[in-house]
Specification:
With 284 residues, the protein is an alpha+beta fold. Helices cover 49% and strands 17% of the residues.
């Protein structure tokens, strides 16, 4: 069964951090040429920070026009397609949880907040501060002096704090910090487990909340019940597979955890107005 291509965090030249972390300058990646990537996923976090850029970045079927002073952040498993013009300037940062650990509470909170939005436009002064941090990370990664990994992790935390400040300055408060942290945790769980778990009770259990508490949280923060969020994620994952893979609808239904393809077809049509086959034909 064909699935959406998954790109792993791997290089040939970096010995110790090959599987966990990498940072590269965009100009080196492009080498004077424009770049166009087909739809794919990553098994790691993907952060693109641009002081200068043109192109289009499609993330989970939402299209963003690339502009100067912008930050794009993808969680593992998200689907994206990137077209970046020659002459773009910035950094591409990639790492996984084994490097910037979720076991550390502060790191987990910072990372969840950072990845809760895929696109973060920034003012020029903020981009300059982010670039100062990334310059340090790049230098430490290149030189690999004693303790460089710990310095990189510390600088990553500063990077996420700077993003948090920028977002807070440019937007209205979205609710108490605890509520936002729990919503971010829920969205991460949905990303990771939607093909296996489709009931509110399971997510409440994973988050150590009652079903009532979880529904009250999502209703107050997002105006939706947890069940509605689950349905939205099922539809998103369905669209990812329908547009990025050539499998039969029955195979995709099975991949998403449905043994009854006819039920999946009815569910998809109810939420989108299209059968899976008609959706693929219209939007591919």
């Amino acid at each position: 069964m064909k699935k959406i291509p998954v790109r792993e965090l791997r290089t040939k030249l970096e010995p110790e951090l090959t599987e966990n972390f990498n940072i590269r300058e965009v100009s080196q990646i492009l080498s004077g040429k424009s770049m166009s990537q087909e739809l794919h996923r990553h098994d790691h976090y993907f952060i693109l920070v641009l002081s200068k850029g043109k192109g289009v970045h499609e993330i989970d079927f939402k299209e963003y026009k690339i502009c100067d002073n912008s930050v794009f952040i993808l969680r593992p498993g998200q689907v994206h397609k990137l077209t970046l013009r020659a002459g773009s300037i910035g950094y591409l940062l990639q790492f996984n949880n084994s490097f910037y650990s979720y076991k550390e509470k502060t790191s987990a909170q910072l990372l969840r907040f950072a990845v809760s939005r895929n696109f973060c436009p920034a003012a020029a002064p903020a981009i300059k501060r982010l670039f100062n941090i990334l310059d340090t990370i790049s230098r430490e990664f290149s030189e690999k002096k004693e303790g460089y990994k710990e310095i990189i992790k510390a600088e990553l935390s500063v990077f996420f704090i700077e993003l948090m400040r920028q977002r807070t300055n440019n937007s209205k408060p979205e609710g108490p910090l605890y509520d936002q942290q729990k919503i971010d945790e829920l969205l991460e769980l949905l990303d990771n487990h939607i093909t296996n778990y489709k009931h509110v009770s399971k997510y409440a259990e994973l988050m150590k909340l009652t079903i009532y508490q979880l529904n009250a949280l999502t209703k107050a923060s997002l105006g939706k019940t947890c069940s509605e969020l689950i349905d939205e994620h099922i539809i998103l994952e369905s669209k990812r597979n329908l547009l990025a893979a050539s499998d039969q609808v029955g195979q995709i239904a099975y991949l998403l955890g449905y043994e009854d393809a006819s039920y999946f077809i009815r569910f998809f049509k109810k939420h989108t107005g299209y059968t899976p086959g008609a959706f693929r034909e219209k939007f591919i």
